[in-house]
TrEMBL record:
Presence of the UniProt keyword Iron-sulfur in the record: no
Annotated localization: Cell membrane
Source organism: Pilimelia terevasa
Lineage: Bacteria, Bacillati, Actinomycetota, Actinomycetes, Micromonosporales
GO molecular function: transmembrane transporter activity
Entry keyword annotation includes Cell membrane: yes
Keywords carried by this UniProt record: Cell membrane, Membrane, Transmembrane, Transmembrane helix
Protein name as annotated: MFS transporter
Cellular compartments per GO CC: plasma membrane
One Pfam family cited in the UniProt record for this chain: MFS_1
């Protein structure tokens, strides 16, 4: 983290460097906590279904709805962040999802539960899009892929932590994980009060003369700029690829359910099977930590080839598809005794990596597949920052999030539909396995769109850099 912070900005005084390091640390932590919230509910569909008196499908629809609300609100938050001060918006978003988590923990009915989840989604929309805009202004282009990989990695780590926290703490007490997270959210909001207001464009080398002279970057988003955003070809590919990428990723909310079903097939009781599914799901997605490698590789290739970031992302996503298909169809058998506590489940699953060939093969496939798809996010983040001037980045990110949310919600619903269709021929867990494997084919058009962005991004990057140089020269 400190190494990443040392690479940002043009202010080198010790006080300024450490203040920026603190700001980066808090933003990364907030990004992680956001995704802890997202990961809590899917492993707990079974106990929440019983507690609220609704079917699991209703909870899946609720999850899809939160994705849509987060994505739709991100467009508005992004516009506000590009036009106004961003620090208060981040604080409001953090308080919003904290209140939503607390409301979920206390929900007496399904209606109250849905309302709390939607409030959480509104807060998450602010933190995701405005947080990205701030981080991109803290990071120099030379290290942007690496540092944004850390930011993206924190989100992946948060999602895994949410899956684990939900399954281990909530298998018998489904409200407890949300209460714990609400307390953590209060601490995070307090920590954010110590961050600084980051100047727009503060890390752009073309604008360095302005900041050295004590001036600022005065440009803000205007309504007429929206057409300009869409006119950049790379923006179109970066936004549209999220529809299919997130459709594939949206199906992953059912991964704990697949693994739970496999455990139940072995005769394991439901609470223990929920814990097994959560731990295995987190283990199979650990390859997300390799997003740092994808960001680093994108930085390296981009120095030699302007379209290198999109090329790295496109090739990696396409290579992951067959690995995911094999992973989901692979049978798993974990030797976990019925009625085991959380510690026993952890030991059994981790021990299975050494003693069970199918578990070892699944972990290896998951590590490679998740590592390849993880190259998508840091290079996507960095490309948005490089093909757009500072006052446009939050809005483009918000539009991308809108499409991402639609894709993820669609993927969640698509997977559920495939499960039902396949179940007519084969029962669970085979129906879950076939459905998840089929959904991964949505990554193919994603990879192809990144390859198109590899062709268009060099001209867009050069045009943005020239625009910033002209603005800096005109202001001096």
């Amino acid at each position: 983290m400190l190494a990443a912070a040392a690479a940002v900005g043009h202010h080198r005084a010790m006080g300024g460097t450490w203040r920026r390091a603190y700001s980066v640390a808090v933003l990364v932590t907030l990004a992680a906590l956001d995704n802890v919230v997202i990961g809590l509910l899917p492993p707990l569909y079974t106990p929440w279904s019983a507690a609220l008196g609704v079917g699991e499908a209703a909870l899946g629809v609720t999850t899809a709805a939160t994705y849509l609300v987060t994505a739709a609100s991100a467009v508005g938050w992004g516009y506000l962040g590009d036009a106004w001060r961003r620090r208060p918006l981040l604080l409001v978003g953090t308080v919003g999802w904290t209140l939503g988590a607390l409301g979920t923990a206390a929900a007496p009915s399904f209606g109250a539960f849905v309302a709390a989840q939607l409030l959480t989604a509104l807060g998450l929309g602010a933190v995701s899009v405005v947080g990205f805009s701030v981080v991109s202004d803290l990071v120099s282009p030379r290290r942007r892929g690496l540092v944004l990989a850390l930011w993206g990695l924190s989100q992946g780590a948060g999602l895994l932590a949410g899956t684990l926290l939900g399954g281990l703490l909530g298998a018998r007490q489904p409200r407890l994980p949300f209460l714990v997270l609400a307390v953590v959210g209060v601490v995070a909001a307090a920590a954010y009060l110590g961050t600084r207001e980051v100047p727009r464009g503060g890390a752009e080398p073309e604008l360095a003369p302005l900041f050295r002279d004590g001036a600022g970057y005065p440009y803000r988003l205007r309504r007429g700029d929206l057409g300009v955003l869409w006119a950049r070809r790379t923006n179109r590919w970066l936004i549209l690829q999220g529809l299919t990428a997130q459709a594939a990723l949206g199906s992953f909310v059912w991964l704990p359910r697949l693994l739970q079903s496999r455990a139940q097939e072995q005769g394991i009781d439901t609470p223990t099977a929920i814990m097994v599914g959560s731990v295995l799901a987190a283990l199979l997605q650990l390859g997300g930590v390799l997003s740092v490698c994808g960001g680093w590789l994108g930085d390296r290739v981009a120095r030699r080839r302007p379209g290198g970031r999109a090329l790295v992302a496109g090739v990696a996503v396409l290579a992951a598809v067959p690995l995911y298909v094999v992973l989901f169809l692979l049978p798993l058998r974990v030797p976990v005794p019925a009625g085991a506590d959380a510690g026993a489940v952890l030991r059994a699953v981790l021990g299975g990596v050494l003693t069970s060939p199918t578990v070892a093969a699944a972990v290896l496939l998951g590590l490679c597949a998740a590592g390849l798809t993880a190259a998508n996010s840091p290079n996507w983040f960095a490309l948005i920052a490089e093909v757009n001037p500072p006052e446009h980045r939050g809005t483009v990110f918000g539009l991308g999030n809108l499409v991402n949310g639609a894709g993820r919600a669609g993927g969640t619903a698509l997977a559920a539909g495939v499960f039902r269709a396949v179940a007519a021929a084969v029962p669970p867990p085979a129906s879950y396995a076939v459905g998840l494997a089929a959904c991964q084919l949505m990554f193919v058009p994603t990879g192809l769109m990144f390859l198109r962005a590899a062709r268009s991004s060099p001209a867009d990057i050069a045009a943005t850099a020239e625009l910033l140089r002209e603005r800096a020269a005109a202001a001096r």
